[in-house]
Amino acid sequence: MHYDENNQNYSFRKDNRNLLDRDTFSKSDPNCLSTFLPVLLSCIAVAMLCVLYTQGIGNKEWREFGRTEVIDNTLNPDFVRKFILDYFFEERQNLRFDLYDVDSKSTNLSKHDFLGQACCTLGEVVGSLGSRMEKPLGGIQGKKCGTIIVKAEELSNCRESVMMQFCGNKLDKKDFFGKSDPFLVFYRSNEDGTFTICHKTEVVKNTLNPVWQAFKIPVRGLCNGDYDRTIKVEVYDWDRDGRTQINFTVAIDFTASNGNPAQPTSLHYMNPYQLNAYAMALKAVGEIIQDYDSDKMFPALGFGAKLPPDGRISHEFALNGNPQNPYCNGIEGVMEAYYQSLKSVQLYGPTNFSPVINHVARYAASVKDGSQYFILLIITDGVISDMAQTKESIVNFVPFRDYIDRTGNHILSMARLAKDVLAEIPDQFLSYMRTRGIKPSPAPPPYTPPGHPLQTQI
C-alpha cells in the first residue's frame, strides 16, 4: 500500500463459496477489491446475485454501483465478475452488499427474494489483516443469513489484454450416458499463495475433445500485470443439479413436399424480411420451453434430406453439422443451424418420424429416476410416411395454419400456437411421475461440504 498517493485503484470481486473451509477459493481476485462470499446457512438459493451499493459524500443516498453475474443452484457461489473502485485514504467510502435469490429474468430487484445484507467501508476492507474482511450477513429479522468475505488488492497500472483459446484431448468420461460436458475455470494466484477464480469458459456439451471459444481477458485480471505469476487452470464436467430437468429436442422436416426453399410458396422459404412458417413455429414454442432447460443447449435434428457431400439420405442428422455434438446454444442457435442446413442439404424424402423419435427415446430410456424429462418437438408439413411406426408415439398434432392471424399479426399467431402446443405438457409430466411413483426430490441440505462440488473435476 502506498498511502502517499491520494487516489489508488482497487477492484472488487464476488466469491460465494465457503472460503474458510476451502483455501483454494479463500481469497478474492486481486483484480477486485471486493470478494464477497455469502455462506447462506438458512435458505435454499436457486440462483444467487450480489448487488454493490456506494454512498455519495455528504448524503446518505445509496446508489447501485454494479451487480455480479447470477450463479445457479449453490449456496456458495464463486463469482467471477469484479468491481473496480478508486480508493481515497482520506475519505470514508461506505459500501453495502445485498444478496438476492433470483426467481426470474427481471432486472427489478423487488421481484426477487432478499437473502441478506452487509455494510462496511472501503477503508475497513483495505485495513483488515491481509486486506480480507469477514462479516455476518443481516437484514432479516430473527434469521441467520450467512457470512460475507471481502478481499482487496491494489491494482497494477497494466492496461494490456491477452487473447487465449484452449482445447482438450481425451478427457475423462464422467457421464453415465454420453460423454463429458467440460468447461475450464481459471484462477490467479494471490500474494499469500492462495488462488482466486478469475474466468470461466462456456460448457462444451457431450465431448471428450472440447474446443472452447477464444476469450479476451485483461492481464491485470489474470495476474495483476505480473507475467511471472502462476495461473491455475482446472477442467470440470458440468452436471445438472438434483431438480427435475426438462430436455428439449427439436426435429425439422426437410422433405421435398415442403417446396423449394427458394420459392415463396415453400414452407421453408428463405424470406429476408420475415420468418418462414418453420421458423415461426420453432421460435414460438422454443422460447417458452427453453426457460425450463437450465443450460439452454438443445439437440437440433433434421430428417428427410440428402446430405453433402455424397447425397446420402438421412432421417436423423444434426442441424449444426456435428453428429457427435448436435447441441445448439439457445433457440437462436437452433434457428441459425436451421438456416445453415437449408443452404447445404437437398430436400428429399420420405417423411419418417421414427428415427428422431427413437433418437430421443434412447436418451430418455436411460433415466428412470424422474430426474429428467424429455420433450421432442417435431415440425413437419404433415405428410407422414411411417405413420404405423409413429402413431403410438404422437400425442397431438397442432396445425400451424389454423393459428395464422388474418390481420398479419405474427406475434399473436405464435403466441396462440405455443399455448396449444405446450398446453398438455404439465399434465403429461405429472401423470408420468405419478404412474411411476416418483415423488419430488427432498430439498437439498443447506450446506454443500467442501470437496463435494456440484461439478465433477476431470
Briefly say what this structure is.
This protein is α+β, with helices and mostly antiparallel strands. It contains eight helices and 23 strands.
Account of the 3D structure:
With 458 residues, the protein is of the alpha+beta class. The protein has three domains: 9-18 and 45-155, Sandwich (Immunoglobulin-like), CATH 2.60.40; 161-237, Immunoglobulin-like (Sandwich), CATH 2.60.40; 245-436, Rossmann fold (3-Layer(aba) Sandwich), CATH 3.40.50. 17% of the residues lie in helices and 28% in strands. The protein has eight helices and 23 strands. Strands 2, 3, 4, 6 and 7 form a five-stranded antiparallel β-sheet that branches. Strands 15, 16, 19, 20 and 22 form a five-stranded mixed β-sheet that branches. Helix 3 runs antiparallel to helix 4 (330-344) and helix 3 crosses helix 7. The longest helix is centred in the last third of the chain and has 15 residues, at 330-344. Residues 1-8, 16-45 and 443-458 have low confidence and may be disordered.
List the helices and strands and how they pair.
Elements: E1 7-13, E2 47-55, E3 62-67, E4 71-72, E5 82-88, E6 94-101, E7 113-121, H1 122-127, E8 132-136, E9 147-151, E10 161-164, E11 182-189, E12 195-200, E13 215-218, H2 219-223, E14 231-237, E15 245-253, H3 277-289, E16 297-303, E17 305-307, E18 312-314, E19 317-318, E20 327-329, H4 330-344, E21 346-347, H5 354-365, E22 372-379, H6 387-390, H7 410-422, H8 425-435, E23 456-457
Parallel strand pairs: 15-16, 15-22
Antiparallel strand pairs: 1-5, 2-3, 2-4, 2-6, 6-7, 8-9, 10-13, 11-12, 11-14, 14-23, 16-19, 16-20, 17-18, 17-21
Helix pairs in contact: 3-4, 3-7
